[in-house]
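Submission checklist for the structure archive. All mandatory fields must be present; incomplete records are returned to the submitter.

[x] Identifier: ATP synthase delta (OSCP) subunit
[x] Organism: Roseovarius marisflavi
[x] Residue count: 172
[x] Sequence attached
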Amino acid sequence: MTSPLDSTVLFQIGPVAITQAIVTTWAIILAKAKAAADTVAKAARKENATRAADLSAEIAARLLGRFNTAEVQAAFLAQLVEAIVGMSDSDRTALIASADDIQIITATDPEGAERAEIEQAVKDALGGTPGFRLVTDPDLIAGLELRHAHFVLHKSWRADLENILKEVENAG
């Protein structure tokens, strides 16, 4: 049996005889190199898309932060109340009975009437009088969150932007 390296000479490059085996080897090497380059290019495109989405979210957050008005906060409070009312009766009862305080997270530090309005709206939605603690987190941009040891209700621009980022990443 003859070796593939002893196959017929297809052409010469100077003193080197180029056989079918050599041409096939070159083709395999080129195909592997192309596949590796395609993998690197795909990873780079994905990384660039992720960076662009992150930058877009950061820009949007800065722009939205300029519109954190009383009307916007009222809209987010209404969404939070709607989400609380949408919880099962047993979940609301468990929250009220819990020894752990419920944290109401706001983007800004509410004072006086606004603070009382938020607390009353959440109490009315829960149907009871749980322990509350208001906490300020400017990273919300605008909106509110209800946090407890076992769950969080997100009603904020930060949460909306995070959801949009996830959708963009999953689409890519």
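[x] Structure attached
Curator remark: The helical segments are 20-65, 70-85, 89-97, 112-126, 157-171. The first strand starts at residue 9 and ends at 13.
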